[in-house]
Write a structure and sequence with these properties.
The protein is 46% helix and 17% strand. It is an alpha/beta fold and 263 residues long. The chain has 2 domains: 53 residues; 179 residues, Vaccinia Virus protein VP39 (Rossmann fold), CATH 3.40.50.150. A 7-stranded mixed sheet has the order 3-2-1-4-5-7-6, with helices on both faces. The longest helix has 24 residues.
């Protein structure tokens, strides 16, 4: 099984060792200082300094389909049985369910749901536990992820899966203009280079039904593949600048947007 590259494994040699040691030292120092400070402005200031410093010492990947196909996804799902894999998701499924409860969607009115960059189907699976009647549409640009999911995702749900591109959301001749009642884009945007990120926002807007909703959350942990972490304010602003209407922030930093009913 390929090993997910982080820390020293990602950049070998003397430079890699230096980065690894600095990364660990920063993490320990920030943790100790943060715990010693009271909640509030001082602790947030330490967190900002840590974030800036860790970005300097932790390497970033060069974004490519090859890296996700040959390194990232095999490290996560190679040799995994879906039902065994699901057992490791319980905390994630619980968090997604809390988001859905706060969202309070009229389930009977939801037919078509799009999961952007579905990876191993974790979010789709969590959603289908609450809305088992919806037709779940899923795509990912990694053939490794899509092949594994096609073989392993439960067949007792309605789902359509394809290898696709966030810059051009279509499946064969299906262009999905204004088609989806709900779109989830969770732990995706931080992986994308700037231009692809912007194009992806436009495509999600195109395929969302007028009056439909988008649930957005970016991962903000410092990983080599997280090449585009924004502040929550920047993230919301970028989506609003491209047509989405912000409604509110849901639990666990999930943001809810809609598309005007007349658009």
């Amino acid at each position: 099984m390929s090993k997910r590259p982080t820390g020293y494994e990602f950049t070998k040699g003397f430079g890699g060792v230096v980065r690894y040691v600095c990364q660990k030292a920063l993490t320990v120092t920030a943790s100790l200082v943060g715990k010693a400070l009271p909640q509030g402005r001082a602790r947030r200031a330490i967190k900002r300094v840590y974030d800036k410093c860790i970005t300097l010492v932790r390497p970033k990947i060069a974004y490519s389909k090859t890296w996700y196909d040959e390194v990232y996804h095999p490290a996560i799902c190679a040799g995994q049985d879906f039902h065994e894999y699901v057992k490791t998701w319980q905390e994630y499924v619980r968090r997604i369910d809390e988001v859905l409860v706060a969202l309070d969607l009229p389930g009977e009115k939801i037919t078509n749901w799009l999961e952007v960059a579905c990876m191993q189907g974790k979010t789709a699976y969590a959603i289908l536990q609450r809305y088992p009647h919806v037709h779940m549409y899923m795509f990912d640009f990694s053939e490794t992820a899509v092949d594994w999911l096609r073989k392993n995702f439960p067949t007792n749900y309605k789902w359509t899966l394809w290898r696709g591109d966030i810059r051009n959301i279509r499946n064969g001749d299906a262009t999905y203009d204004g088609y989806f009642d709900v779109i989830t884009c969770i732990d995706v945007t931080e992986h994308l280079p700037g231009e692809i990120y912007i194009d992806g926002i436009g495509e999600m807007y195109r395929v969302l039904k007028p009056g439909g909703c988008l649930i957005l959350m970016q991962g903000n942990t410092h990983q080599p593949e997280h090449i585009h972490i924004l502040s929550e304010e920047e993230l919301v602003r970028d989506f609003c600048a491209r047509g989405f209407d912000y409604i509110k922030t849901l639990p666990h930093r999930h943001h809810l947007f809609t598309k005007g009913a007349n658009e």
